[in-house]
Amino acid sequence: MAKRHVIVGGGTSGWNAITTIREIDRGESEIVLVSAENPYSRMVLPYYLSREIGEAHVFTASETRLEALGVETRFGRRAASLNPNDNKLILDDEEEIAYDDLLIATGSSAVRPQLPGADGANVHSFWTLDQAREVTASLKPGVRVAMVGAGFISFTILNALLKRGAELTVIEIAPRILPRMVDDTGAEIVQGWLEERGVKILAGAEITSIEDASGGGKILKLKAGADIEVDLVIMATGIKTNLEWLEGSGVEVNGGVVINDHLRSSESNIYAAGDVAEGPERVGEGKAVHATEPTAMQHGRVAGANMAGVDTAYEGSLLVNIVDVLDLEIASFGNWDDEEAEVIQAVKKDRPAYRKLLFEGGRLVGAILLGRTRDIWATNDAGMLKGLIQSGCDLSEWKEHLRSNPFDIKRAYLAVGAAETLLPETLLGRPSVPERDIAVQQ
Amino acid sequence: MKALKIVPERCTGCMRCELACSYMNTGAFQPSRSVIRVSAFEGHTSYSPYTCPQCDEGWCLTACPVEAISINSAGAKNVLDAACVGCKLCTIACPYGTIFYDPDQHTAFKCDLCGGAPACVDVCPRDAILYEEAETADWVGPFSADRAHGPGGALAAGVK
């Protein structure tokens, strides 16, 4: 009998696991995909909000495409519980699905702080496609928007909101914007850049309630300072892993489902991937939840390979984030906030540009990059910084030079042979195949 | 599969490759739009061109959330402009720093080996860039080794 793989969650991890399984077995196994939503890419929702792309562009795996890959679907349904003793998944309509192995890829959800009015009318989250539809329907030129939260998720949609003509106020409870993506120096440069371009920013501001204004607007009451009246509130106040349904299953959970370097949970035939998984890190020995798109993709592929019977070890995930706001690039890598690390940093006088390099001995373990999009080196160096961290190449002898100019990363990269070190590395031990080229045997 | 082979020892830093590359890709001579870039070492006495090694992993290809990167007939990873939304995930996924972002078109761009007839190879007067059946792993090799000890070379200890 064919092996049956059950994939719970149709996001980036689930989809990459499916394509990897099919790339290997060409259709020999059974695959069942359970997904509450029709699969789409969260990463591109900001471009849907800005109307640069239509809604059709956001979907990754249509039912037709999944059918062509020999995948049975349960769309619009959620996993309710898991019974590893009998190898059964139970859905919210009580259907039981037996599996040989199963991938937990249920991702995460947006959360809002518990304050009065946080769930009221015209208060939105921006995480799912449905939520994106609601926000896009509410936007028109001149609309006053309060963006609550100044983290990565918030910043991915600032451009879109401004492009749609919103008047924007950003409110952050932490003392600085982007508290989990850049340091104080970086945050100050970004804040200055946004304020010069008409965005109001309140950092260190605590909202006590959100009330209805006469005439349909909203009023945000602050612990200190004047009320803020807007037409629309977007809450980008964090995410939480979707783990509730695993309660009582016996699968080991910490901040996420704890997985080993083969993406296996405490149950050897149950894998976890993406935002819901707490897995090995590339830098250091620890495990962490890295709720980012690149990690979700890599987890999905490595889990898929192991599920298809190809023994594949994972090197661990590296935290990388990049976002641009009004043509200012902001990126951070690895252990950018490591207080133990040796720091080399510089800002430019004549333009908003900042570079921070963090070393452990001769090895680069983290970095922050900030610069204008049209300064072409700003984005050029992003990949090289990632490559130097990933390769672990010894930069000892270039450190003094980098101390005098941390922006001159490229020559150091070439001289230490980073590319040569990296070239043999592949995630699955073989060349990657584009998803569009993967098909089952007829 | 044919690949670019770079012999930095032959490079004179004339930048023709950058001009040709940007012209092929944009119709204008603008080194900032070139996907092959020449770096100068040791006070402009030696140079190394550098571009996408068309790695087996295809970090850009697998990172793309909308399948906007494909493999063309020359075996090069290639950005499909109409599908690219400009999210830049590829630029931070690629550990070689060889996929770029075009701020005017709002799309990523990279070396596509000119579909199998790379312009940089054609214009190089010194055969510092070759297009031949080759492993991509031997790339900048000995040139790197000679410059691995910092911009001033390795200093011997104990010399006052």
CATH class of the largest domain in chain A: Alpha Beta
CATH class of chain B: Alpha Beta
Give the mean pLDDT of chain A: 95
Largest sheet of chain A: 5 strands, parallel
Overall tally of structural domains of chain A: 3
Radius of gyration of chain A: 23 Å
Assign the CATH architecture of chain B: 2-Layer Sandwich
* Biggest sheet strand line-up of chain A: 3-2-1-7-19
Low-confidence stretches of chain A: none
Form type of chain B: globular
Termini Cα gap of chain B: 53 Å
What order do the strands of the largest sheet of chain B run in, or round the barrel if closed?
Answer: 1-8
The average pLDDT value of chain B, as a whole number, equals: 89
What global shape of chain A is seen?
Answer: globular
Order of helices and strands of chain B: EHEEHEEHEEHEH
Give a quick account of the main beta sheet of chain B: strands, pairing sense, barrel closure.
2 strands, antiparallel
What name is given to the CATH topology of chain B? Alpha-Beta Plaits
Strand pairing plus helix content of chain B: what structural class?
alpha+beta
Provide a descriptive summary of the structure in words.
The complex is a heterodimer of chains A (442) and B (160). By secondary structure, chain A is an alpha/beta fold. Chain A folds into 3 domains: 184 residues, FAD/NAD(P)-binding domain (3-Layer(bba) Sandwich); 115 residues, FAD/NAD(P)-binding domain; 96 residues, Enolase-like, domain 1, CATH 3.30.390. Chain A is built from 12 helices and 26 strands. In chain A, the strands form 7 sheets. In chain A, strands 3-2-1-7-19 form a 5-stranded parallel β-sheet. In chain A, strands 9-16-10-11-12 form a 5-stranded parallel β-sheet. A 5-stranded antiparallel β-sheet of chain A has the order 22-23-26-25-24, with helices on both faces. The radius of gyration of chain A is 23 Å and the shape is globular. Chain B is 21% helix and 21% strand. Chain B has 5 helices and 8 strands, in the order βαββαββαββαβα. In chain B, β6 and β7 form a beta hairpin. With 160 residues, chain B is α+β, with helices and mostly antiparallel strands. In chain B, the strands form 4 sheets. Chain B has a two-stranded antiparallel sheet with strand order 1-8. A two-stranded antiparallel sheet of chain B has the order 2-3. A two-stranded antiparallel ribbon of chain B has the order 4-5. Classes of the chains: A alpha/beta (442), B alpha+beta (160). At the A-B interface, α8, β22, β23, α9 and α11 of A face β2, α2, β4, α3 and β6 of B.
